[in-house]
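To: structure desk
From: M.T.
Subject: fold request, one chain
Message: Could you run this one when you get a chance? Sequence is below, nothing fancy, just the single chain.
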Amino acid sequence: MNKISKLFDSTLLSPDVDKKEVIDFINKSVQKNVRAVSVPWCYIPLAIELTSNSDVGIVVGVDFPLGYSPTEVKLAQIDYYSSLSPKITDFDVVLNLCAVKSNDWDYVHDEIVAVSRLTKAMGRVCKIIVEVSRLNEHELRYLCEILHDIEEVDYVKTGTGFGPRPTTYEDVVIMKSVLGDKKPIKVSGGIRTADQVKHFLQLGASLFGSSHAVDIISQFESEGK
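Reply: Done. Structure tokens follow.
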């Protein structure tokens, strides 16, 4: 079960959660031995404290969930949160969809290079969020072609969970057809059941972000996986 639990970044990113909910969420996620947790950034010191006696990391979303801040702001966020604790293991960076929709591919490329290089220089895992729910197939394929060749990117992530629809199986099929085995895929946005996870794994996904991670792991446990 430990192997299954480490497939999950357990997330609680609703804008109206209170401290008590966050404490309960982190404790349950640590009990399940998830890969990492992600909570509203104001509670990062609390997450550092509550994960301190575990190998559970902390994910910070950069320019989350809209992604249209200038590159310099994203870099400042990475620098700031890296300074807080080595428990912060991952940065999930929302790329600039305004630039994508403007076909400003040089901007997109240069921003991804900048944020991924700084993230790796800080010794953290870099995930780039492409927000598949707001892209057409051409945009998704082109983005994956760019990401395929940027060495410092560790994962390509499907979404923030704040998009207009969940991630679909077809989204991952398209991404996998371009990324191949060069870049692992993190699926996030609408992941609620063990059956979904199994199907996405068959399609080539490697990691999941979900607010239902604890429940999904329990589903696997009940199956004796």
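Reply (cont.): The CA atoms of residues 187 and 208 lie 5 Å apart. Let me know if you need anything else for the meeting.
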